[in-house]
Specification:
Elements (H helix, E strand, L loop, with lengths): L5 E6 L7 H12 L4 E6 L7 H11 L8 E5 L10 E6 L2 E6 L5 H4 L6 E5 L15 H14 L10 E2 L11 E2 L3 E9 L5 E6 H4 L8 E4 L2 E4 L13 E5 L4 E6 L4 H5 L6 E5 L6
Parallel strand pairs: 1-2, 1-3, 3-5
Antiparallel strand pairs: 4-5, 4-6, 6-7, 8-9, 9-10, 9-15, 10-14, 11-12, 11-15, 13-14
C-alpha cells in the first residue's frame, strides 16, 4: 500500500499556463494517494529571497513527513544542483539556489541534504528548461510513495544559503533588508523581534530609503489612513506598511532594499 504523504507546491509559474497542472499530473501518476496542496504560484519571478521567506513561514505548519516542493529556479538547466533535504521531520525538494536558506540557517537546525542524481526517480528525457516536471515533481512523488530520501543521490554537505547579508546589530542600531513584498504592498524585512526587543518601542526609528517611521505600532489602526507604519508581523519579522494603503506604492523600493532601525534601549 502506498505511503500517504502531503506534497506542497510553491512556484513562480503563475496560473495562466499549464506548468503547475503538469507537475500535479506527474505526481498523481506516480503517487496517486499523495495529497497535493498549492501554497502559491504567483511569486515574483525569480525572487529567491521571497521564496525562501515564504517557505520558512509555512513549512512547520504541516504534519511531520510533509514534502515541500518549491520551484523558483532562475538557474534551471545551469550548474546548480537539484536537492532533497530532510530537516525537522520534513523533506524539502528544490533547486540548490538558496530557497532553503532561511530554514537551514535557523537556530542551528540539523538536516541531511542529498543531490538528486538517481535517474530512476526522474521523468526521461529530462528537459533543460522544465525541471519542475522532470526532476522535482517525480522525486517528490517517489518520496511520497516511501522511497528513502538517501536514495535520491549522494550526500551534500552544505546547501546554498541566501545571497544576502544577515541583519547586523550594533549598540544602538540594526541594519537589515527587505526579504519579501506581499500582495498588500507591505515590506517584510529580515529583522526579527528578538533583535530589536531591547529598544524602546516608542522612540525607535525605522528608516528605508528616504522615509523614516518613528515608533513600533501594534496594529495598522495605530496610524491614520495613508501613514507609514512599522510593526512586527505574524512571523515575528519587522514589517513596514501603510494604513489602508501600500508601502510599495509609497516607497517604491524593491526586495533587497536596506532597512535601518535606530533606538535607545529600554533601560535608558
Amino acid at each position: 500500500m502506498a505511503h500517504r504523504r502531503i506534497i506542497t507546491l510553491l512556484t513562480d509559474f503563475g496560473d495562466q499556463d499549464t506548468y503547475v497542472g503538469i507537475m500535479k499530473g506527474v505526481i498523481v501518476s506516480i503517487a496517486p494517494e499523495a495529497r497535493i496542496i498549492d501554497i502559491c504560484h504567483n511569486l515574483p519571478e525569480f525572487h529567491i529571497e521571497s521564496a525562501a521567506y515564504m517557505l520558512w513561514t509555512y513549512y512547520r505548519q504541516y504534519p511531520a513527513g510533509t514534502i515541500h516542493c518549491a520551484v523558483i529556479d532562475p538557474g534551471v538547466g545551469g550548474d546548480r544542483a537539484a536537492i532533497a533535504v530532510e530537516c525537522g521531520g520534513y523533506i524539502l525538494v528544490l533547486p540548490d539556489n538558496g530557497i532553503a536558506g532561511m530554514i537551514l540557517s535557523d537556530s542551528k537546525r540539523k538536516y541531511r541534504a542529498f543531490v538528486i542524481e538517481n535517474e530512476d526517480l526522474m521523468n526521461k528525457p529530462v528537459s533543460s528548461t522544465f525541471h519542475g516536471r522532470d526532476i522535482f515533481a517525480p522525486v517528490a512523488a517517489h518520496l511520497a510513495g516511501g522511497v528513502p530520501v538517501e536514495e535520491v543521490g549522494p550526500p551534500l554537505r552544505t546547501p546554498a544559503l541566501l545571497d544576502i547579508a544577515e541583519p547586523v546589530a550594533a549598540e544602538n542600531n540594526i541594519r537589515g533588508c527587505v526579504l519579501h513584498i506581499d500582495r498588500f504592498g507591505n515590506y517584510i524585512t529580515n529583522i526579527p523581534y528578538d533583535m530589536a526587543a531591547c529598544f524602546n518601542k516608542k522612540t525607535i526609528f525605522v528608516k528605508i530609503g528616504n522615509f523614516s517611521i518613528m515608533g513600533i505600532s501594534g496594529t495598522f489602526s495605530d496610524k491614520e489612513p495613508g501613514e507609514l507604519v512599522a510593526y512586527f508581523g505574524s512571523t515575528g519579522m519587522l514589517e513596514i506598511g501603510v494604513t489602508r494603503g501600500s508601502a510599495l506604492e509609497t516607497i517604491k523600493l524593491p526586495v533587497g532594499a536596506s532597512v535601518k532601525v535606530t533606538g535607545r534601549t529600554n533601560d535608558r
